[in-house]
Write a structure and sequence with these properties.
The complex is a heterodimer. Chain A is built from 10 helices and 17 strands. By secondary structure, chain A is of the alpha/beta class. Chain B is built from 18 helices and no strands. The chains are: A alpha/beta, B mainly alpha. At the A-B interface, helix 2, helix 3 and strand 4 of A face helix 3, helix 5 and helix 8 of B.
Chain lengths: 371, 417
């Protein structure tokens, strides 16, 4: 181990730890603040002065449509602005003492200069957090962030011909792509087919119009489904005759994506299709269990709703931490990477991003554990 | 011999114990459902207070060549370290704040300001101690393998040194805990004792180097000419924290009335009996809000052992309900002022340094350890009697039995004299 990495070692786990000057200082000061990080003291002064966990402050909440809003966020230390347009971030919001996590597509174009990012959230009727974000979050609120991620992204350089198929809030990742290309002043041949119930429901309607006016290479087809009916894929030949040759990005309701996938499959061009499925997986509380994946070992097992995740892991041969087996000692706590689990004692649901006690939790539908 | 049959000892029927278990489950559920903003604010304020105290203490110690500054800095740092250890470290690592889903206040990520690594401690304490509470031979916290705290353990000549061992343990409590936890970790990982560079030993060494380096090298160096005073202040703060945590732990587990159990009792235990074992095995300290805070709410040791993962700031209200359950089922609720609880523990330390033949009472009927057999002589009638008092309609359980047993004993002693 070199001297530099020795000094940095105690701070190695903070976000953005590849940025070395800050981490050199952080690592050196940690010798004095151990077992804490200097960040633990600094964020008492300013909540953004912490890279132990990525944080951000909402600087503006801008309504887009009746039921959607754009949140402009200033991330704190350690955030990587080099994300790809189309990627999503995890955002944690504090409600009633508890942090809730969701993922949303970034709608901003990557921009290191202004150090701001934005996400656009549509309030879902049953989505407690999305409604809270659209209607209840004041500017100034501190949020937690998870680093941008996802494969649904604009390649570098962008292909010469592209097709975007979006509906509803499925436009959000594509918006980031369009804004990025617009910012560079180099927008290739793009056809964008977007559906929304009415004119008022179209997110970024004005901006789309402006982009189209400024770039002759962009063609937008906006479909108002309440009056015009659903966009029929069969009519794609009329709107965009060369769709088979284009790289296509599609994002929207699951039914629409399934249809698209099928059609591209029939044509044998699935290598030109990029899909983003938004639909939040819901907990299966029927007690039927599900398929549990153990990410570290790659083991997979099918279990019923009465088998604890700890037992499931042991059956599957995954290396699981265990302790009291009665839910008191916290030895078996592991992060739930995706899906849902249910606490067998209280019936309480746990969702993606939470850490769960595997000895008293069972699968509520398919889920993945980081163990 | 310690309690082998908790149902018989408690003077309760199986269905009574099941009912008691359901009432305790209801308390858990009520607290779980009502956790919210108020609680989150409490822990965040506590963290803020602790860090401010520590920071202030460290700053004041830069002037530690002056006596008032030395005293002020040492006191601030001592308070900071006590709070860090009890209300923060101990409770966060129990998962009491995991429900907040905050990665920074979570049992899986917390590291504390003590020589032993958190991971080792969680294993030995959360798992071994809280699962096998007070089972002689399974819970290594009964005397921490150093002291003989129950007559169930055979007397050995080395026990004569117990009064000294006790003082050393108190002064170096964090080191005692760290070694005790390392031992548990080594046993768990089936470690080869000859290997000096195994994973647990390396983790242990790194943690010690950081802790000792910070308090005894770096901070003294930083204060330059005042280094000797700063060193002394840091050592004093650590000593104060050690003595305090030692006292709180001893008062929670070793006063008379905190019962011990046998492996037999554990083997076929139900969930409700587990609850009962926690209730009978722990002891509280009478405390006001400030003292409760400084003990990390472990003045509510009974409540903590019943619900180790519920937020500490709720133990006070839980205690009211647990106490009324004890009255309802006529069970003892062992509590007393700190001084009394500590003197009782101290009495046991000194008394059990002596061989059994110098002691009057048996392992079935001693102040620090009893078993269901204690009632065989004096209290047989109570154990077999109807368990509801026909006059008052009140339950006649363990508490009444203990009272009658004591009265019968003193009557007998009077007759003999």
């Amino acid at each position: 181990m070199g001297l530099k990495s020795w000094i940095e070692a105690p701070a190695a786990r903070v976000a953005g730890s590849n940025r070395s000057v800050a981490n050199l200082v952080r690592g050196a000061v940690t010798r004095l603040t151990t077992p804490l990080l200097p960040d633990d003291y600094l964020h008492l002064v300013n909540p953004l002065w912490s890279a132990r966990e990525l944080r951000g402050r909402i600087v503006e909440v801008r309504p887009e449509t009746v039921d959607s809003a754009t949140l402009v966020i200033r991330p704190g230390w350690g955030f990587d602005f080099g994300y790809q347009p189309g990627q999503y971030v995890g955002i944690g919001l504090h409600v009633d003492g508890r942090w809730h996590w969701r993922s949303y597509s970034l709608t901003s174009a990557p921009n290191i200069d202004n150090k701001l990012i934005s996400i656009t959230v549509k309030a879902m009727p049953e989505g407690f957090l999305s409604s809270h974000l659209v209607n209840g979050v004041p500017a100034g609120t501190i949020v937690r962030l998870a680093a941008p991620t996802g494969n649904f992204a604009l390649p570098e350089p962008p292909p010469a011909k592209m097709l975007f198929l979006t509906a509803g809030s499925g436009i959000t990742p594509v918006m980031s792509m369009l804004r990025t290309m617009d910012r560079r002043g180099d927008l290739p041949d793009v056809v964008h087919v977007h559906s929304a119930p009415t004119q008022n429901d179209v997110m970024f309607g004005d901006e789309l119009a402006r982009l189209q006016a400024e770039h002759s290479s962009l063609r937008c087809h906006i479909r108002h489904t309440r009056t015009g009916g659903k966009f029929a894929l069969a009519s794609l030949d009329e709107v965009c005759p060369d769709w088979r040759e284009r790289q296509t990005w599609a994002c929207g309701p699951l039914g629409m994506l399934d249809e698209i996938e099928e059609m591209w499959d029939r044509e044998g061009i699935t290598d030109r299709l990029h899909l983003e499925r938004f639909a939040v997986s819901r907990a299966d509380l029927s007690g039927a269990g599900g398929t549990v994946t153990f990410a570290k070992s790659g083991k997979v097992i099918e279990v019923d709703g009465a088998t604890t995740l700890l037992e499931a892991g042991e059956k599957a041969g995954a290396l699981m931490p265990f302790g009291c087996r009665m839910g008191i000692c916290q030895t078996c706590v592991v992060p739930l990477a995706s899906g849902h689990a249910v606490d067998l004692r209280s019936g309480k649901e746990h969702a993606e991003g939470e850490r769960i006690q595997t000895c008293i939790s069972a699968a509520a539908g398919d889920c993945t554990l980081e163990a | 011999m310690a309690i082998t049959n908790i149902t018989e000892f408690a003077h309760l029927t199986d269905s009574d114990i099941e009912a008691l278990g359901r009432e305790l489950d209801a308390i858990r559920r009520d607290v779980e459902e009502s956790r919210g903003l108020r609680d989150a604010r409490y822990i965040r304020r506590t963290i803020r207070l602790q860090r401010s105290l520590e920071l202030a203490g460290r700053l004041v110690l830069f002037g530690s060549r002056r006596r008032p500054a030395w005293i002020a800095g040492t006191v601030l740092l001592s308070f900071a370290k006590c709070i860090e250890n009890m209300e923060l470290g101990h409770n966060v690592m129990h998962g009491q704040w995991d429900w907040m889903n905050d990665p920074e206040i979570h049992s899986t990520t917390w590291e504390w300001d003590q020589t032993g690594p958190s991971e080792h401690w969680k294993r030995a304490h959360n798992y071994s101690h809280h699962t096998y509470t007070n089972i002689v031979g399974m819970d290594d916290d009964v005397g921490f393998g150093i002291l003989r705290m129950t007559r169930d353990e055979k007397w050995r000549p080395i026990n004569l040194l117990q009064p000294i061992a006790n003082v050393i343990l108190a002064a170096a409590f964090e080191w005692g805990i760290a070694l005790h936890d390392l031992e548990a970790q080594l046993r768990l990982e089936g470690d080869d004792r000859q290997r000096w560079n195994s994973k647990p030993k390396k983790e242990f060494a790194v943690k010690i180097a950081r802790q000792v380096g910070k308090d005894f090298v770096l901070f003294p160096l930083l204060t330059g000419p005042a280094w000797k005073h700063t060193l002394a202040a840091n050592a004093t703060a650590n000593l104060a924290r050690n003595l305090w945590t030692y006292a709180v732990i001893f008062c929670g587990h070793f006063p008379d009335g905190a019962e011990k159990f046998t492996v037999d009792q554990f083997e076929n235990e139900t969930r409700a009996q587990w609850y009962l074992r926690q209730m009978l095995g722990s002891a509280n300290i009478d405390a006001g809000p400030v003292m409760a805070f400084m003990t990390g709410n472990l003045c509510y040791q009974i409540e903590h052992h019943l619900f180790p993962d519920l937020p500490s700031n709720r133990y006070a209200e839980i205690a009211v309900r647990v106490r009324s359950l004890c009255e309802k089922y006529d069970l003892p609720y062992t509590t007393g002022p700190l001084s009394r609880q500590y003197l009782l523990a101290l009495r046991t330390v000194h008394k059990l340094a002596l061989p059994d033949k110098l002691l009057l009472r048996t392992a079935d009927d001693a102040p620090e350890t009893s078993s269901e057999r204690k009632f065989a002589g004096t209290g047989a009638k109570i154990a077999e009697a109807l368990r509801i008092d026909t006059d008052t309609g009140r339950r006649r359980g363990l508490l009444s039995a203990l009272r009658d047993h004591k009265a019968a004993r003193s009557r007998r002693l009077m007759r003999q004299s």
